[in-house]
Design a protein that fits this description.
The complex is a heterodimer of chains A (335) and B (301).
Chain A: H1 2-29, H2 34-39, H3 46-56, H4 62-74, H5 88-123, H6 128-141, H7 145-159, H8 182-189, H9 194-229, H10 232-239, H11 244-266, H12 268-281, H13 287-297, H14 300-328, H15 330-334
Chain B: H1 2-7, H2 18-28, H3 30-52, H4 90-126, H5 128-143, H6 146-157, H7 161-188, H8 191-199, H9 203-211, H10 216-239, H11 251-258, H12 266-294
Helix pairs in contact in B: 2-12, 3-4, 3-12, 4-5, 4-7, 4-10, 4-12, 5-7, 6-7, 7-10, 10-11, 10-12, 11-12
The chains are: A mainly alpha (335), B mainly alpha (301).
Chain lengths: 335, 301
């Protein structure tokens, strides 16, 4: 086990260096001189330009700049935003809870509907329920979620007037961040209606972001269940006369969960990609919208730092899933 | 047992042709056949868009701004699916959009497949440090969420349809590389490869004539599935303003232009998205059927 952990950790290092190299060099390739962009409309004199070039170190060789960047990153310094002048690190962690809250809700939505749907489909294999559920799952899987978001807005915000169109909470309420999670903070604030408002704002983005994971989980659960249901120990359990609920739930589902958990873990990247679209449409102040805005504003340090942080996050989650999987399934460790 | 074998008529003993065999399995899957029909219809529309569309896609009718579809009050049969905010015929734009989407899918899949399969072949055959470097590189690319990576690539290359297609093709590479490498590695251990080597087949012949044809099934399935990914992702980039630029009648870009009218004119939002959904759904059905028919191990699961 120790060897397995060590080899997995060792592959983490070159990948990390590669990720820093990519996010660093991307920014050097972007069109437009960053200093000219930073100066904005006012423009600047030649002298000032040279001074800034020196200050930011853009006049030094590529590799020297990269080395400085890398040592900075390892000390937690990702540079400052051109626009807000605040450290990228601070901005990221100010916005991160919003994305995390939305992602957790989307995942809860996807798992709580996807798991039962997959189990029901597998148990009723080939029958009406199976077909209906799997057709729905395929539609969900093929869904352009930016359109799905607009449709939901038309129906629930436009026609029915049930849900707001954007933001995390109504402007009527104001309270300080405690945890950064709107659902928790609104409860802590004790203001009447604040929690309900937060929930209202969260419903549509959750559905939109959770749709594709929901479809993937339902499909994955079904095929994992089908595999397990044909195993000998399930037949034995049936032969012993255990109730179908007990066989399906306890014996089969528990063993089918292993690949499903992997899929859930690995969909973090998908979730973040989905967050880009979802947050943009619902003006959700999280990482996805922040990245898109910075790309449009050519706020290079933010794009660079954001890319790096997002990639490192995906890498860490993948590593955790791998290690967990190795813990559960000894065959992986040897391989 | 012997009785059963003897009972089989003479002509059935010969193995049916590969295509025939494939079709037998494929047509068993009703969803896949429906997907195939819808996809064929989509291709037909893409080819005949100029003939089918009642108007040129960018012609503006100033008297008919935001006119609803013909069955709704205020709509006319002149514009069957209504008009958009600047008076362009929705139906004509949608039909021409099929042409863009088909073209997008085709180009992206060709670039991604060619590049990915070549890289995968090299990684699988070379082994050693070349293999390690290539696979690490793919790991690095996979660490970035694909849409985010594509978005940054487009920002570097400049927003346009072509650049969006290149970006998506690049982002899709790692999947092809991993898939090809894995199949190459399994094939390389088989006897027929060894015998080809013994006979004296060169590296190039081994790669392209001996091994590659036997790795084609998973690559074909991946190609079918990434056709739909390409359409979806390029539409998403168009929606974010980083893909095709207005007034191109690309479905994602049409949705981006329609966003401000969502509460006033449902048709400008509904139809382009529906077109994307139906096309992607048909291709995914087709891809699932292809996988089941090509890979007997996964059949009927």
């Amino acid at each position: 086990m120790f060897r397995f952990l060590l080899t997995r950790l060792l592959t983490f290092i070159p990948t990390f260096i590669g990720v820093t190299l990519i996010s660093f060099s991307f920014i050097r390739l972007l069109p437009g001189d960053p200093i000219v962009v930073m100066a904005g409309e006012r423009g600047l004199t030649e002298e000032r330009y040279q001074e800034l070039m020196q200050q930011f170190g853009f006049d030094r060789p590529f590799l020297v700049q990269y080395w400085d960047y890398l040592t900075g990153v390892l000390q937690g310094d990702l540079g400052d935003s051109f626009v807000t002048k605040r450290p990228v690190w601070d901005e990221f962690f100010a916005l991160f809870p919003a994305t995390l809250e939305l992602s957790i809700c989307a995942m809860i939505f996807a798992v709580s509907l996807g798991l039962p749907a997959g189990v029901i489909a597998a148990v009723n294999r080939g029958k009406f329920f199976d077909r209906a559920l799997m057709s729905t799952a395929l539609i969900g899987y093929s869904m352009p979620i930016f359109w799905w978001a607009l449709l939901l807005i038309i129906v629930f915000s436009g026609n029915l007037g049930w849900t707001p169109v954007s933001g995390r909470i109504s402007l009527l309420y104001y309270f300080d961040d405690v945890t950064g999670f709107m659902l928790i903070d609104s409860l802590l604030s004790g203001q009447k209606g604040a929690f309900a408002s937060a929930v209202h704002h969260l419903v549509l983005p959750t559905i939109v972001l959770g749709t594709i994971p929901l479809a993937v989980i339902a499909r994955q659960t079904r095929s994992a269940m089908l595999e397990v249901l044909s195993e000998d120990y399930v037949r034995t359990a049936r032969a012993k006369g255990l109730a179908p609920m007990r066989v399906n739930g306890l014996h089969a589902l528990r063993n089918a969960l292993i690949p499903v958990v992997t899929v859930i873990g690995l969909s973090v990247g998908t979730l973040l990609a989905g967050a880009i679209l979802t947050e943009t449409i619902f003006s959700w102040p999280g990482i996805g919208k922040w990245m898109v805005d910075s790309i449009f504003r050519r706020d290079y340090p933010v794009v660079q730092g954001g890319l790096l942080l997002v990639a490192v996050m995906v890498m860490i989650v993948n590593l955790l899933v791998d290690v967990l999987y190795g813990l559960i399934n000894p065959r992986i460790r040897k391989g | 047992m012997t009785d059963v074998i003897a009972a089989i008529p003479e002509e059935n003993i010969e193995r049916p042709s590969r295509l025939r065999e494939f079709w037998t399995y494929f047509k068993e899957n009703r969803g896949a056949v429906i997907g195939l029909y819808v996809f064929a219809f989509f291709v037909l529309v893409a080819i005949l868009a100029d003939v089918l569309a009642p108007y040129p896609p960018n012609e503006q009718f100033r008297q008919h701004l935001l006119q609803p579809p013909f069955w709704q009050e205020g709509g006319t049969t002149e514009f069957l699916l209504g008009t958009d905010a600047v008076g362009r015929d929705m139906l004509s734009r949608l039909l021409h959009g099929a042409r863009y989407s088909f073209f997008i899918g085709l180009v992206v899949v060709v670039i991604a497949t060619l590049g990915g399969v070549m890289t995968g072949l090299i990684a699988g055959f070379a082994g050693g440090w070349v293999d390690t470097v290539i696979m690490r590189l793919m790991d690095i690319m996979l660490a970035f969420p694909s849409l985010l990576l594509a978005l940054v690539l487009v920002a570097i290359l400049g927003p346009s349809l072509l650049n969006a297609m290149i970006a998506i093709a690049i982002v899709l590479q790692p999947h092809y590389v991993r898939l090809t490498r894995a199949s190459v590695m399994t094939e390389l251990t088989k006897d027929y490869v060894t015998s080809a080597r013994v006979v004296g087949a060169g590296k190039a012949r081994l790669m392209f004539k001996t091994v590659l044809p036997n790795c084609m099934s998973p690559i074909l399935v991946q190609a079918a599935l990434s056709f739909s990914t390409a359409i979806l992702d390029v539409a998403a980039l168009g929606f974010l303003g980083m893909g095709a630029q207005p007034p191109t009648p690309e479905w994602g870009t049409m949705l981006a232009e329609a966003r401000e009218f969502i509460l006033r004119a449902w048709w400008v939002v509904t139809f382009p998205g529906l077109a994307i959904l139906i096309t992607v759904l048909a291709i995914n059905l087709l891809g699932d059927g292809l996988r089941d028919a090509l890979d007997p191990k996964l059949k009927r699961s």
